[in-house]
Amino acid sequence: MANDMARNTSIYSRRESEARSYCRNMKAIFTEARGSELFDADGNRYIDFLAGCSSLNYGHNDPDMKAALIDHISGDGIAHGLDFHTDAKSAFLRAFEEIILAPRGMDYKVMMTGPTGTNAVEAAIKLARKVTGRRNVIAFTNGFHGMTMGALALTGNASKRGGAGTGSLSDVTHMPFEGSLGEDVDTLGLIDAMLSNPSSGIDAPAAFVFEPIQGEGGLNAASDAWMQGIEKIARKHGALLIVDDIQSGCGRAGTYFSFENAKIEPDMITQAKSLSGFGLPFAALLIKPEHDIWKPAEHNGTFRGNTHAFVTARVAMEKFWSDDAFEKAIAGKSVVLTTALGDIAALVEGASLKGRGLMQGVDVGSGDLAAAICARAYDLGLVIETSGAHDEVIKYLAPLTTSPQIMREGFNILAQATSDVTTDMKIAAE
Amino acid sequence: MANDMARNTSIYSRRESEARSYCRNMKAIFTEARGSELFDADGNRYIDFLAGCSSLNYGHNDPDMKAALIDHISGDGIAHGLDFHTDAKSAFLRAFEEIILAPRGMDYKVMMTGPTGTNAVEAAIKLARKVTGRRNVIAFTNGFHGMTMGALALTGNASKRGGAGTGSLSDVTHMPFEGSLGEDVDTLGLIDAMLSNPSSGIDAPAAFVFEPIQGEGGLNAASDAWMQGIEKIARKHGALLIVDDIQSGCGRAGTYFSFENAKIEPDMITQAKSLSGFGLPFAALLIKPEHDIWKPAEHNGTFRGNTHAFVTARVAMEKFWSDDAFEKAIAGKSVVLTTALGDIAALVEGASLKGRGLMQGVDVGSGDLAAAICARAYDLGLVIETSGAHDEVIKYLAPLTTSPQIMREGFNILAQATSDVTTDMKIAAE
Amino acid sequence: MANDMARNTSIYSRRESEARSYCRNMKAIFTEARGSELFDADGNRYIDFLAGCSSLNYGHNDPDMKAALIDHISGDGIAHGLDFHTDAKSAFLRAFEEIILAPRGMDYKVMMTGPTGTNAVEAAIKLARKVTGRRNVIAFTNGFHGMTMGALALTGNASKRGGAGTGSLSDVTHMPFEGSLGEDVDTLGLIDAMLSNPSSGIDAPAAFVFEPIQGEGGLNAASDAWMQGIEKIARKHGALLIVDDIQSGCGRAGTYFSFENAKIEPDMITQAKSLSGFGLPFAALLIKPEHDIWKPAEHNGTFRGNTHAFVTARVAMEKFWSDDAFEKAIAGKSVVLTTALGDIAALVEGASLKGRGLMQGVDVGSGDLAAAICARAYDLGLVIETSGAHDEVIKYLAPLTTSPQIMREGFNILAQATSDVTTDMKIAAE
Amino acid sequence: MANDMARNTSIYSRRESEARSYCRNMKAIFTEARGSELFDADGNRYIDFLAGCSSLNYGHNDPDMKAALIDHISGDGIAHGLDFHTDAKSAFLRAFEEIILAPRGMDYKVMMTGPTGTNAVEAAIKLARKVTGRRNVIAFTNGFHGMTMGALALTGNASKRGGAGTGSLSDVTHMPFEGSLGEDVDTLGLIDAMLSNPSSGIDAPAAFVFEPIQGEGGLNAASDAWMQGIEKIARKHGALLIVDDIQSGCGRAGTYFSFENAKIEPDMITQAKSLSGFGLPFAALLIKPEHDIWKPAEHNGTFRGNTHAFVTARVAMEKFWSDDAFEKAIAGKSVVLTTALGDIAALVEGASLKGRGLMQGVDVGSGDLAAAICARAYDLGLVIETSGAHDEVIKYLAPLTTSPQIMREGFNILAQATSDVTTDMKIAAE
């Protein structure tokens, strides 16, 4: 009977808000997870190509982080420490300085915001407005930055924006992301022209905010040249450059920060999702020291600086980023991924590849088709999701640590699902 | 040397944002905590009358929650599950239904928002605007609801609001909280008069949002009559009633929800802080089913539904709320607290008591004095903080589980600190 | 046939917007007007107790202004001069300096805004925000300041505000006007308390804007003490004081500016309505020289500085304000008016008098009753209108120059109309 | 002495706001004007190529309008009639119906807004938001629509926008006008792409607002194809089409409405400037009957429906628009103008022609150069002004009725001035 209860999902329809989403199509009750595998209450195994939307870049329950966390809890380590000094926080900050910042020649202050990406984004735009005395912020088509009012104003998605009801999503100008108006349209030229014209009606911006690879927006990957162009335009017009690296960071794009190859120097960087390494709520805003003009507690939050996350995040840095082995492994897997997705794209007429690093996908041209393929894949034991303005992109976000074998297994399922669905459609069309 | 490093706080000035606050005055590096006691790297012991700003109502590292959490992690339970069904989530929802909702005759849907209070507040006002088609929200003087742009617009504190820089904090009307204009001013009459006058310029409100006891605003406790009055005014003017129970809830005010005695029926209730029981990031919005009109994913978030928090929150409910023993214990301690604070207030001319339940404090009339007393108390081994528009209230927020002995020990320190500071002042004044 | 056409109002229903209002109840086609009398196409005579809502304080077609205007036009004087220097403008400014400003010891710059009151109000709040660097403006219940978005945000009336549809009426805090919460509520204390509390959520204001007598809001006349109190609060909180004297100015309240007896010193004063003296479109903003920080053309408008209005406005000042005879005459008539309205109020149970000077009225307690009385008065040859949040005040706004004889004639009609309507109501009620 | 006073401009520096502009460079005190000629207090004559910024399309003091207006005033015709029916208003509406609307097959309601262009624009956007229930309005680079907060939000010019200080200019998206991003950029495609992308962040618009020829923005003339494209995009996205014809209308562009040749059907049309024919303040909003959902007085204003302007506007329509003679004359003069401006452009390296009809100009590439030429022209007896984001366009806006002889005389002065200035510059450069 306990088992029956464990498998009964009526509590969800009875008690959980209609806002719930993933569980509607993937109805399993998950109970355990290791690495790139999920297990449900009936013992079924699923390969995880979603990884908590890139919050589990190092896989589920990494044994080293797990050991450190259990050790911390067992010893009555601090669980909640507001923004007090704690040994766990000291160790996190030191590791971040030594392993992440110093080797990259980066000089940033770390702001512990509330432990969700949207909190970090809110802190960033508040600070940019304080620093510059300007109000307008430039965001981009297909950008996604969060659900609280300040971050939602930056977010492009009409359905998400609709959640604000009659509330005002103001003080933001939405500009076209690279490629969004067609391959041949010079978006940098357009943006610079609009801002350079004193009669354009676009107020001088406090900041530009963009994702190097748009995770929710369809895996649109900005080129290095475009990122450099935006940096240049921002500097020219006296605006700060904010990179939202929440989904694309922590190795997902091939380097720790997704923009490293572009050699841009953001004034602020938002981090969340895989920052804790273990899937725990954690977010931070990196701020160039000269812009760190916050007064004490001017932006605070009860859960800023999740102590459990400090513990696992430190282990993640030490384990994966102390040398370049992990980066090299990602590079290798990225090539494998491109090839595998290319094979899948070949099954769908007009399909094309999107993204880069281990943040790639297949644009199958239709949200219905993408949904059907993901649903079929789920039935075959693969958790994978869609992305894009029309949900038309099948998005690969497996843990970066996924073994070649499981990658291959997952690709096979995805190919099977794609083949099944397209075959069904052809039959239906005949 | 490792120990030296453990005691070195230079990493904070070098790497943590200027936004940090508590650690500026209470400089210890905390390493362990149990119940109502904190320990630092040098083995010093501190009594905790702050409890993570009411996030640790059941104390630090409660052994039962700790065991359950370690068990969950050890067994590779889900750490991050997006909004999938999980065994931990099912169990949490069932416990919430059986232990919290059903016995109180309450019917609410649970919305897992991002795991910070401000996210829950943002979800609430977005939904209220969607439901009513109205834009304006009524908030109150000295109210505190969070730091993201939507919640910050509701927040009264000028310094916090200043963090938004030039950003727009709009669509909110701030009305006087009970007592804020003086004991004899009828705030309910005033509010109803303003809203009933079609030429007042106050647009018809989507919602009223208030805290039954204003935690950051100075422990102003609304009377049952005032809460009933606001409910009546809200109903009269077609507005939803949203109770922000983030700091005052989970037993802090004497009952699970702080407004239970007033017998009001909020349309939405925000919860966070002690909801996880263990100090883990966790927040939820309770919604009357008829208002739960969210479309799937219309408001979402990566860390909505923190799975570790599901585990500990369930244990907290089972352990503390399955019968009325805990509630009775709180009632007893509240009486003790009132007496003890009265003794301390007697040491300061003009001081008065604020708040109710285990959320009481002493208004010493001056922020400087309150800060001096708290600083002295810290030196004597007691962590306690201030609150109020001028930080003029010394705020007791110890774990609800604090033993009578430790309560007494803490009161003695606080009395000593108050006496020391007032004596010093008298000497300085002579 | 020409006559038939002259009396045919079908063109209005066919071609004029549904926004039209006065002509719906008072359907005559007016053709001529002299002093306080209007004549329609059928030769019917109407006494005018409305005077273009106080735009015709010196009556219709004052012979001296008329002669000067015809002379100007006949001689090909400038009709439209943008903001060029013209002889007519020079003469206007000199007369304004010598007749209005100098004798009152007032030092103001004159800004020619677009020739409507709302344009002057918009200029005032824009400038106040520029001067102070603050955003929030304090306006009052029952205040009316215009229909363009900036002025409408200050306006209290819900129906007028509704005209903005989904547009944002932001950056304004609405506070209670004197008496609006009941005779015994200390609105000054309330306002100061809200602004003095750093956690009230009311942002520091750029300006206070009020009408000394609220024309559309129900003839609520602020006491000298209240105006002085608002001035004091404004100074205390670093806000500018803006007096909207559009309807109450130009002698209507007994003195040229309606606030003269209160001896307050506004930072800005808006003027329009009777400023031209002849009913021509004309508005101005008076600005304390130290606040006149406009850059050239930073606020402009095609019709700023209506040249025909310069001509008539100069004559009006010379004729009516060169000595104190006119002011004395107004004082005498005000006494007569109070008595006459008292007699009318005596006919309606619970009715009371409102306003002061020649801007008085009778609050009959119900918009329906007031409308019925005005409609009956119109049938008897008297043009008079209502005011107030519920249109419950019968408002006397006859030209200041109305002869005692015509005043008496009008009062008789109004008494008759009131008697007729209340008698009908009693019969209906039986 | 009286004469001295007449020539003394110290009253302006002493008493008129710093916002004044034209009179700073053109310092004459004008006293008389006839047709296309202005005369100052010293009897100097100036040719008027500015015409009140297109408010005097029929010249100064047209004898027929002048006679009708004197006749009206002499007979004590209504000067100020609120929105009562008057004989003058009836006649205006009938003439507008018969002479303007009917022959063009146009069906519009006429809304008498406050008598300035900005009031008409405010009414238009308020109504569009009411009709559609949407908030966002699309405006264009280099657009100019007025100075009140609603219209200013639509206006592109940064200096004008700066006049709002910290006030919020929200709910508007600024899109590129035809040609503003370079000749080869497809602005229609860009706009449609942004609006068609559900993740662009551009909220569904209530309306598009544009000027067929941007008067203040540099005489950018939209092609018929572009206007048709905007109409199509507006229809596709459920938005209303609002044409701001304030400066370009009343024959200025060659036809009564400037968009007639494009055969578009705006939902609303704003009119002002030359609508009265005589330079009197007057504005109107034309509304498709199905959108005329105003409630009575929902948008009103003291000076809505300037009665003197009704008189002159009727004469203007009867005299100039009863047959096609005037339109043909404009066509002829437009050809002459193009040739003449071409000759002037030939004097300046890189100069090019802008605009169409009798709203043309020369882009000399630099605001300083354009200002110098206009200043020199003024010294030689020609009033002419600049336009454009950088004030780089010398703008011809002479009365449409200007005789060929005076046109030629003015062109000669302009050519002389251009030659003088460019010669001086060459000498200075050597």
TrEMBL record, chains A, B, C, D:
GO biological process: ectoine biosynthetic process
Annotated source species: Roseovarius marisflavi
EC numbers on record: 2.6.1.76
SUPFAM superfamilies cross-referenced by the UniProt entry: PLP-dependent transferases
Family membership: Belongs to the class-III pyridoxal-phosphate-dependent aminotransferase family.
Pfam families: Aminotran_3
Record keywords: Aminotransferase, Pyridoxal phosphate, Transferase
Species classification: Bacteria, Pseudomonadati, Pseudomonadota, Alphaproteobacteria, Rhodobacterales
Keyword check for Transferase: yes
Transferase as UniProt keyword: yes
Pathway in which the depicted protein is active: Amine and polyamine biosynthesis; ectoine biosynthesis; L-ectoine from L-aspartate 4-semialdehyde: step 1/3
GO molecular function, one term: diaminobutyrate-2-oxoglutarate transaminase activity
Cofactor requirement: pyridoxal 5'-phosphate
NCBIfam families per the UniProt record, alphabetical: dat (TIGR00709), ectoine_ectB (TIGR02407), PRK09264.1 (NF006733)
Protein name per Swiss-Prot or TrEMBL: Diaminobutyrate--2-oxoglutarate transaminase
